[in-house]
Design brief:
single chain, mainly alpha, 13 helices, 74% helix
Length: 284
């Protein structure tokens, strides 16, 4: 393409993509500048590393970083791990497959806040799960299951909500694999697991990378699941950012926000690189 055609393409894209880039760029710029002392709403606005230095020295910040990464990584891998066998199962249509696929994708239509409140009602002290386990004789009395210290409830919610999205991406990738390739692998003696490990996984690595990255970013920055079902002794980065914002400490909130963006970018790149390296090793 000549430079005139490139200029025409860019001009046609500008009304849509240009506005998106402009709005996102302004938000990122203000957050970054605010983290270095500019746009200070409570004092003098000037360049300063004080907010970063003070934040990096706080234990609550380091704990929030580790906790958010834990939720993001585990949620992404669990979602993909559950989606892969379902995508392979639904690869070829069979009676009822459309209905099953629709039911599996139903969580995409449920708002996160609604899902969190429904989950809390199920696992609450006098909820359905406690009553069921008492009724069948496994427990003698109710157990406290919500807001557990290890954030198991948050991981369950994240996996339940994000698995259908991973399933959408992986189903298309799995269905694009030719039957001839799988039949050839079967003729060469490859079992079900070997076909997945040496054929399906490497050929669907791009879809897997996309699912891992998008789910990781969403779970890393999630606020609603953590507030409703998360542990009370830990804060995520999004909670910490809102806490500083509500207290009028906008510069501290900006430091947390910029940190969240940096972790999301770095974590996404690392997940993509690791998955690509692993799959290339399997191809060899």
């Amino acid at each position: 393409m000549t430079w005139k055609k490139w200029l025409l393409v860019l001009s046609l894209l500008t009304p849509g993509i240009g506005l998106i880039v402009a709005f996102i760029g302004v938000a990122v710029y203000i957050a970054a500048a605010q983290s270095f002392g500019y746009y200070n709403l409570a004092g003098e606005s000037s360049f300063s590393l004080e907010f970063w230095d003070r934040m990096l020295g706080r234990k609550v910040f380091s704990r929030a970083v580790m906790y958010s990464i834990y939720i993001g990584v585990i949620s992404a891998f669990l979602s993909v791990a559950f989606a892969y066998p379902l995508a392979i199962w639904l690869r070829k249509p069979f009676p009822g497959s459309l209905a099953i696929g629709a039911m599996l994708k139903a969580p995409l239509l449920v708002h996160g806040l609604v899902a969190a409140f429904l989950f809390i009602n199920v696992i609450s002290y006098h909820g359905i799960l406690n009553q069921l386990l008492q009724g069948i004789g496994l427990w003698d009395e109710p157990h406290r299951l919500q807001n557990d210290r290890n954030a198991i409830g948050v991981l369950i919610l994240q996996t339940w909500k994000n698995m259908p999205f991973a399933l959408l991406l992986l189903t298309g990738a799995v269905q694009s694999i030719s039957d001839d390739i799988l039949n050839a692998a079967r003729d060469l003696g490859a079992g079900s697991f070997d076909r997945f490990r040496k054929v399906i996984a490497p050929l669907t690595v791009s879809a897997m990378q996309a699912a891992l990255i998008i789910i990781f970013i969403g779970a890393l920055a999630d606020f609603s699941f953590q507030v409703i079902a998360g542990p009370t002794n830990r804060q995520s980065l999004s909670q910490l950012m809102v806490f500083f914002k509500d207290g009028g400490r906008w510069n501290d909130a900006a430091v947390v926000g910029v940190s969240l963006m940096v972790i999301a970018i770095a974590g996404s790149a690392l997940l993509a690189a690791v998955s690509r390296i692993v799959m290339r090793g399997r191809i060899a």
